[in-house]
UniProtKB/TrEMBL annotation:
Cell compartments where the protein resides: Cell membrane
UniProt xrefs under PANTHER family: LICHENAN PERMEASE IIC COMPONENT, PTHR33989
Domain PTS EIIC type-3: from-to ranges: 8-423
Organism of this sequence: Scopulibacillus daqui
Function of the protein: The phosphoenolpyruvate-dependent sugar phosphotransferase system (PTS), a major carbohydrate active -transport system, catalyzes the phosphorylation of incoming sugar substrates concomitant with their translocation across the cell membrane.
Transmembrane segments: 32-53, 73-96, 103-124, 144-166, 187-207, 219-243, 250-270, 295-316, 358-379, 399-421
Keyword Cell membrane belongs to the record: yes
InterPro entries registered for this protein in UniProt: PTS_EIIC, PTS_EIIC_3, PTS_IIC_cello, PTS_Sugar-EIIC/EIIB
Keywords, comma-separated and alphabetical: Cell membrane, Membrane, Sugar transport, Transmembrane, Transmembrane helix, Transport
Membrane disposition: Multi-pass membrane protein
Protein's recorded name: Permease IIC component
Main location class: membrane
Length: 451
């Protein structure tokens, strides 16, 4: 164990710290977080529109009319379907902010470049027609949602970097003093905007002249599809969870480094695929098990490492005053999936005994939950994004619309208790002995006391 700790501390910790402080990854994380409130609001309407309550559909039809579900889809589409727009603006804004240049102009330029990179055409098949016709002058909503997420991220990072470099080299139009700041900033952004949009325009023209068609098709070919395959696989989830837990063991926020910065775009896109299928047909077999809710709702129920089970053991099985008191303090936050008190209070950080179950528990839970869903015993996540503070049991039901989603969370909690128990018993025994061993004092010959 000491050799493993030394290896991780020497080789993994420095890399993790660099990733955590990397401006571009931080900006990607912040841009995605900017879209979260809208997606959660859309998810609330999605839950209401699909509540599995007998007679609910008849009641809603009486209140809102026969097409009530269509009316409830309006806010769903208005939130999920603009995910890429919000993320693009947010990433460019936050990156410019970190570079200490005008963030608002950076976000606006990036958003314009993203729209420019998107083909404004839609294929439409009229009713009764055998062949689709091309409808020009429209922006495909699908590319503004999860399907355009990676293009939005790339355009935002590129645009913000070009904007920042042009501004810092002072290759801008400077207005005389006395001109209102808002007007002056708009002229300052003129040349950077022209450069960014010209480059994106040229790239679009080149791609249109080839079989690649446009930037969305290119990114889907070389990035989105391979990453979705890896990130949406069981092995991808296991590797991500292992990395997250190892980072937490060294006091680094593993979720912020791995999930928010690297995996969120993949898992959100897979989640939205499930939502689209679910809205089209509630009884259809959903395409993805691994999604953002899979991690948030089942793998981290009670916090990273499923420490709610550990906290319950502290409250009811610990003998030492330290562990029992910590269990009482950490209980309320853990019920809402906030487990920093448990991680840093136990502590689990840099603690060889407690690190083992902290890493092992979520890996086992990933396997149990995945195969439960793959076998059909448990419903797959239907594309609803539940607030991460929603208590265990409730969140599983809401994320699937089935009781089985909440039931497997209870099973996972029991698994976590069984795994943590022998390790807590050993660690609690040490703490109990420390509390009941009187401090030894030795008097030296000069009269001083050594403790």
């Amino acid at each position: 164990m000491n050799a493993l700790m030394g290896f991780l501390e020497k080789y993994m910790l420095p890399v993790a710290e660099k990733i955590q402080g990397q401006k571009h990854l931080q900006s990607v994380r912040d841009g995605i977080i900017l879209a979260m409130p809208l997606i959660i609001v859309g998810s609330i309407f999605l839950i209401i529109a699909n509540l599995p309550i007998p007679g609910f559909s008849h009641f809603m039809a009486g209140v809102f009319g026969a097409d009530w579900s269509k009316k409830f889809s309006y806010p769903i589409n208005a939130t999920f379907s603009i995910m890429s727009i919000i993320v693009c603006f947010g990433i460019a804004y936050r990156l410019a902010e970190r570079h200490k240049v005008d963030a608002l102009s950076s976000g606006a330029i990036a958003l314009s470049a993203f729209i420019l990179s998107t083909p404004q055409v839609l294929m439409f098949t009229p009713e009764g027609a055998k062949k689709a016709i091309e409808v020009p002058g429209v922006i495909p909503v699908t590319l503004m949602g999860s399907q355009g997420l990676f293009v939005a991220m790339i355009i935002a990072l590129f645009s913000a970097e070009v904007y920042r470099k042009v501004i810092q080299k002072e290759f801008v139009i400077k207005m005389p003093q006395g001109v209102p700041p808002a007007v002056s900033k708009s002229f300052t952004a003129l040349i950077p905007a022209f450069i960014v949009l010209t480059i994106v325009w040229i790239v679009r023209l080149i791609l249109e002249a080839t079989s690649l068609q446009d930037l969305h098709h290119l990114i889907n070919l070389i990035i989105t599809t391979p990453l979705s395959f890896l990130g949406g696989s069981l092995w991808g989830m296991l590797i991500a969870v292992l990395a997250i837990q190892l980072l937490w063991c060294f006091g680094l926020h593993g979720d912020a480094i791995i999930v928010d910065s690297l995996m969120a775009p993949i898992w959100l896109a897979l989640m939205d695929q499930n939502r689209q299928v679910y809205m089209a047909n509630h009884h259809a077999d959903l395409p993805n098990i691994i999604t953002a809710p899979f991690y948030n709702i089942w793998v981290t129920a009670g916090g990273s490492g499923l420490t709610l089970g550990l906290v319950l053991l502290m409250m009811f099985r610990a003998r030492s005053k330290q562990m029992k008191q910590l269990g009482k303090i950490a209980a309320a936050p853990s019920l809402f999936n906030i487990n920093e008190p448990a991680i840093f209070g136990t502590p689990i950080v840099m603690n060889p005994i407690m690190m083992i179950p902290f890493i092992l528990t979520p890996l086992i839970v990933v396997l149990v939950t995945y195969f439960s869903m793959a076998s059909g015993l448990v419903a797959k996540p239907n594309g609803v994004l539940i607030p991460w503070t929603t208590p265990l049991g409730i969140s599983g039901f809401l994320a699937t619309g089935k009781i089985s989603g909440g039931a497997v969370q209870i099973v996972n909690l029991i698994i976590s208790i069984l795994i943590y128990y022998p390790f807590l018993r050993l660690y609690d025994k040490q703490k109990y002995q420390e509390e009941h061993t009187p401090s030894q004092t030795n008097e030296s010959f000069d009269g001083s006391v050594n403790v």
